[in-house]
User: Which sequence fits this backbone?
């Protein structure tokens, strides 16, 4: 098998790795393309473990981009949310499986670049600590501590009772029907009392600058929005789970991703920034 063929075989995994580190599919694709260009400049026959070499290169490139992206995201207008991924091609599902769920990506945003890289490489991709240390430029023991801190944070922030796919789908469809009908009571019923609704407009689309908390406030806001729009939500699989896309008469679409626990929606992420919706 040629180096090009082996790279093509590894590409879905590498893209998933870069996307997990960055939360931005466009940047992840750039990172994977740069890894290919670097491979073209070396003699692949001299690389003993090509998969390991590619993993290290992609992880390092993604870490560099993540560090520079942090400064840009601090200047971002309103909350910054990861770019959602939708795919109708089963061959691409490797980038969408639930080990890198959207809920996890939002939690990883709270970690330092080094912690996020250590967690993704070791916890998601089973990369040994010694190899992770080579990527982040620290000792294996330091990397072990980074991954441990990251793991504790993720466990603390993840839903305590993750919903099954059927439970998730039922809640999302109940929400879609309540929004379509503008039924305040049904909206409150499908929302967890402590639900959080976060919107990402990036200064390019109308969106709340701060998250909205609580089932009553979130339900009233959605009921008000439903009265202004006759467009019905469209079911779309986003990051491996059922989500919704809201068409808009003004061209400002929204992609909605949900976290469901114990039959109710605990988190709604609404991406309205058109730069993050170009693939949807």
Assistant:
């Amino acid at each position: 098998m040629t180096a090009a063929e082996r790279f093509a075989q590894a590409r879905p995994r590498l893209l998933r790795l870069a996307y997990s580190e960055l939360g931005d599919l466009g940047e992840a694709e750039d990172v994977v393309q740069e890894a290919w260009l670097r491979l073209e400049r070396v003699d692949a026959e001299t690389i003993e473990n090509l998969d390991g070499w590619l993993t290290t290169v992609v992880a390092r490139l993604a870490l560099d981009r993540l560090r520079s992206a942090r400064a840009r995201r601090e200047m971002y207008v309103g909350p910054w949310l990861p770019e959602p991924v939708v795919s109708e091609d089963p061959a691409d599902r490797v980038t969408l499986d639930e080990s890198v769920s959207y809920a996890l990506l939002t939690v990883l945003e709270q970690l330092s670049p080094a912690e996020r890289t250590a967690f993704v490489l070791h916890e998601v991709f089973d990369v040994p600590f010694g190899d992770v240390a080579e990527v982040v430029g620290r000792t294996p023991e330091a990397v072990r501590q980074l991954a441990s801190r990251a793991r504790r944070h993720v466990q603390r922030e993840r839903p305590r009772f993750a919903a099954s796919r059927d439970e998730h789908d039922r809640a999302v469809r109940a929400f879609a029907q309540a929004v379509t009908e503008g039924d305040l009571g049904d909206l409150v019923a499908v929302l967890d009392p402590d639900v959080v609704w976060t919107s990402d407009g990036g200064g390019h689309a109308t969106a709340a600058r701060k998250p909205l908390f609580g089932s009553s406030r979130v339900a009233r806001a959605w009921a008000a929005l439903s009265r202004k729009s006759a467009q019905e939500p469209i079911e779309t699989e986003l990051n491996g789970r059922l989500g919704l896309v809201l068409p808009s008469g003004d061209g400002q679409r929204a992609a909605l991703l949900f976290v469901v626990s114990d039959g109710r929606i605990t988190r709604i992420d609404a991406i309205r920034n058109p730069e993050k919706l170009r693939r949807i």
Q: What stands out?
A: Residues 7 and 23 are 22 Å apart (CA to CA). Residues 165-276 form a domain with the Nuclear Transport Factor 2; Chain: A, fold (CATH 3.10.450.50). The first helix runs from residue 3 to 22.
